[in-house]
Amino acid sequence: MDKKRVLITGAAGFLGSHLCDRFMKEGFYVIGMDNLITGNLKNIEHLFADKNFEFHHHDVSNFVHVSGELDYILHFASPASPIDYLKIPIQTLKVGSLGTHNLLGLAKAKKARMLIASTSEVYGDPMVHPQTESYYGNVNPIGPRGVYDEAKRFQEAMTMAYHTYHGVETRIVRIFNTYGPRMRLNDGRVLPAFIGQALRGEDLTVFGDGSQTRSFCYVDDLIDGIYRLLFSDYAYPVNIGNPDEITIGEFAEEIIKLTGTDQKVIYEPLPKDDPMQRRPDITKAQEILGWEPKVNRAEGLKITYDYFKTLTEEELFTKEHNTFDGYIKK
Ligand code: UDP
């Protein structure tokens, strides 16, 4: 009856759909919103029969209306991989900026608490390692990643302004590389790329010499950190990620072992502005939220591989799984 009501944008995406599951499990009434450009209804179709879930097919870069009360808003709508930014750069900028503005306006009107999905990309190609929240970053505003990085930086600024000047309750999570079931096979990110290649019997493409590093967090750990942050009273940015750092070359070897593929690694040019090192300093999350990751990479990769193995042949061999083309023509 008196369920708390939460709006989750990007609900049909990788992280958004896992958030929907968590909030449903915790007994909330969940309103999912997505324009389905990179999201997929398959990720949330199991929720449609539940009376505590509703779905709105809407682009939050346009005015957002939700009837009734709202207690919480989690803004997770955005393309989130470098190849997406290249294909839909303007939409990427708009959802981080205009979309955030619309949702902050909604939060203000409804007196809701709002949490935004920021990113380790605000640190750019970092000159400080590991990255602490106090580091201002090294972002190229006009590079290929600039549309995402700057939208997210603007998003943080806009969110702090609503917090400071309008008294809106806000939370900011800076998300580091995360993986798990429901990642889009062809979103270009390294884990689905490698696993997809292994399953198709193709060689694994390492960009550059493979010495660049990332630190991969399993999705359940990330969702738990976000959940704790929302219900904390801390309004400043908090890194959530797994500090277990690995080179991309070593990561490719791990995937080869996991999948048992007899394919080899091939090397391709490193994309422009690809960060050379990334690892979160999670001291704040540990101290403020009592959070740290629990799932190690071996366990997390196994679960994720099992998920990708359930994809159909058609899904595995279809190169595109999104609706960019239709959207761009509109
Ligand atoms: N990468 C790679 N091969 C691929 C896809 C990505 O070597 O097929 C590299 C990429 O250049 C980057 C790292 O893997 O250094 C992580 O890339 P991803 O796109 O997953 O995330 P991000 O760069 O945003 O952290």
Automatic annotation (TrEMBL):
Q: What is its main location?
A: Golgi
Keyword field contains Hydrolase: no
Q: Which GO terms describe its cellular component?
A: cytoplasm
Has UniProt tagged this entry with the keyword Glycoprotein? yes
Q: What is its EC number?
A: 4.1.1.35
Annotated GO molecular function terms are: NAD+ binding; UDP-glucuronate decarboxylase activity
Name any cofactors this protein relies on.
Answer: NAD(+)
Location relative to the cell: Golgi apparatus, Golgi stack membrane
Q: In which pathway does it act?
A: Nucleotide-sugar biosynthesis; UDP-alpha-D-xylose biosynthesis; UDP-alpha-D-xylose from UDP-alpha-D-glucuronate: step 1/1
For membrane topology, the record states: Single-pass type II membrane protein
Coiled-coil stretches noted in the UniProt entry, renumbered to this chain: none
Q: Report the InterPro entries cross-referenced here.
A: NAD(P)-bd_dom, NAD(P)-bd_dom_sf, UXS-like
Q: What are the residue boundaries of the NAD(P)-binding domain, all occurrences included?
A: 7-302
What family, per the record?
Belongs to the NAD(P)-dependent epimerase/dehydratase family. UDP-glucuronic acid decarboxylase subfamily.
Q: Which protein, by its recorded name, is this?
A: UDP-glucuronate decarboxylase
Species per Swiss-Prot/TrEMBL record: Fulvivirga sediminis
